[in-house]
Amino acid sequence: MICTRRSTTISIAMTALAIAVSATAAPDYSQPQPGEALPGGSTTHHKQRNINAFSQSSANMSFENELNFKLGNGIFKKIWVPAPSSTTASDGLGPLYNARACQRCHLKDGRGHPPEANWPEDNAVSMFLRLSIPPQNDAQRQLLESGRAGVIPEPTYGGQLQDLAINGLSGEGRMVINYTETTVSLADGTQVSLRQPEYSVASLSYGPLHPQTMLSPRIAPPMIGLGLLEAVTAADIEALSDPEDLDNDGISGRTNRVWNSLTGQLDLGRFGWKAGNPTLIQQAAGAFNGDMGISTPFVPAAAGDCTTQQADCLIQPNGNTAQQDNAEASEAMVKLVEFYSRNLAPPARPDFDKPEVLKGKMVFHQSGCAACHQPTFTTATRIDMPEQSDQQIWPYTDLLLHDMGKALADNRPEFMASGSEWRTPPLWGIGLTQTVNGHTYFLHDGRARNLLEAILWHGGEAQTSRDHVIKLPVAERTALITFLESL
């Protein structure tokens, strides 16, 4: 009896151990995984993967909320005009600006692109240059160290170069891009040409730039799934952080800590190319003011990004009215845009289980791409965000900062992000870029002309993964791209 009981106990223990090991074992990436056909969980839309694929509302949205989504869409598309105007709900543009509507940069709620040529042959409507300088005195150093500011704006031109202006003023200047082609040889003999951009500013209207000015080009990122990313808990993101690379895998992602203007304290950065904003509403209010020169109760500067060195800009009429909370766009308007942005749903993946896609998924994981492009999260329970609450999502990002190497560095710090660190961009919807936006320009400045070029630009923490892709046989490399295009 004792032996029988002991055998039974051992058997139960081994069964429990087997179950525990099975529960923690890595998924079989050669097979479909539960839920991956629905990148946004229940928010995922099943409408056609066409030019409107990024402009659909959360599929689980209530009928009552659909009106708020449509109102937010209307404000997102609104063409702003200079003040004074008979349309007081739409005036206050500028005086200096980069676009007259949110939709002008985020065309069809998708990805921006670099100009095909320098001005005047083409404009940079969905791309601009961030500007800043190193701290010049103790007060500025203390401001950065406290986290109350992420950068010190260029003293004459502010935080970004605004190439457009209302009548009577001149735009600040024109971004100039010069490309140098370099060649990368793949193991199978394929030659891939990469274009290395160099940025400068021409036709400056308000005097020279500070000699230590740092330039950082930025294209408008896609808008889908933003509310879902906001609903991921800070603890889940921080759990992926490994700044000292204690597991010795070569990946040392870390969080950006940024100033939350609503709470008056440091918070986890989630949005922007360097995770420089903690919330969607702060991101939206900053874009209203910086990109279009529109004041809001959150960022009340009626002259937008104009500086004290631009006197003619500061004296222009503004569109602040009592009806708009003594601003040009009211709190309600900004919150409607926030709601719209929060509920732009990721599209379903109809090809997730095709053999070539599954083969490419295996290559994706074997190459180490998932170390930063974290496939899945489960969002928090959020009473205030019912659509985004308790969803298994597949964004393929860890929302952390990673050192991407010298070649991709903009050499411009932002809060805790160094000049070579970038937030891992989500990959959901990336294969629809051509369909929605008519191009395949990727990375923060659109230098990559296709997905393979984007991979080959990876360096720093991603160098090992890049080198693995270089060595892949043609069939595996093709499968990898097919997988990415299925997202």
Helix content: 25-40%
Mean pLDDT: 94
Shape: globular
Order of helices and strands: HHEHEHEEEEHHEEHHHHEEEEHHHH
Counted beta strands: 12
User: What percentage of amino acids are in beta strands?
Assistant: 5-15%
Rg calc? 24 Å
Main sheet characteristics: 2 strands, antiparallel
Multimer state: single chain
Unreliable segments of 5+ consecutive residues: 1-23
Termini separation comes to 58 Å
| Number of helical segments with 4 or more residues | 14
Give the structural class.
Answer: alpha+beta
Strand order of the largest sheet: 1-3
How would you sum up this structure, described in words?
Helices cover 28% and strands 12% of the residues. It has 14 helices and 12 strands. The chain has helices at 2-24, 63-77, 102-105, 138-146, 226-230, 234-238, 280-292, 311-314, 331-342, 355-366, 433-437, 451-456, 463-470, 474-486; strands spanning 96-97, 127-132, 164-165, 174-185, 191-202, 214-219, 257-260, 265-268, 377-378, 392-393, 401-403, 421-423. The strands form 6 sheets. Strands 1-3 form a two-stranded antiparallel ribbon. It is globular and about 65 Å long.
Descriptive terms for the model:
487 residues; 14 helices; 12 strands; 28% helix; 12% strand
List the helices and strands and how they pair.
Layout: H1 2-24, H2 63-77, E1 96-97, H3 102-105, E2 127-132, H4 138-146, E3 164-165, E4 174-185, E5 191-202, E6 214-219, H5 226-230, H6 234-238, E7 257-260, E8 265-268, H7 280-292, H8 311-314, H9 331-342, H10 355-366, E9 377-378, E10 392-393, E11 401-403, E12 421-423, H11 433-437, H12 451-456, H13 463-470, H14 474-486
Antiparallel strand pairs: 1-3, 2-6, 4-5, 7-8, 9-10, 11-12
Helix pairs in contact: 2-9, 7-9, 10-14
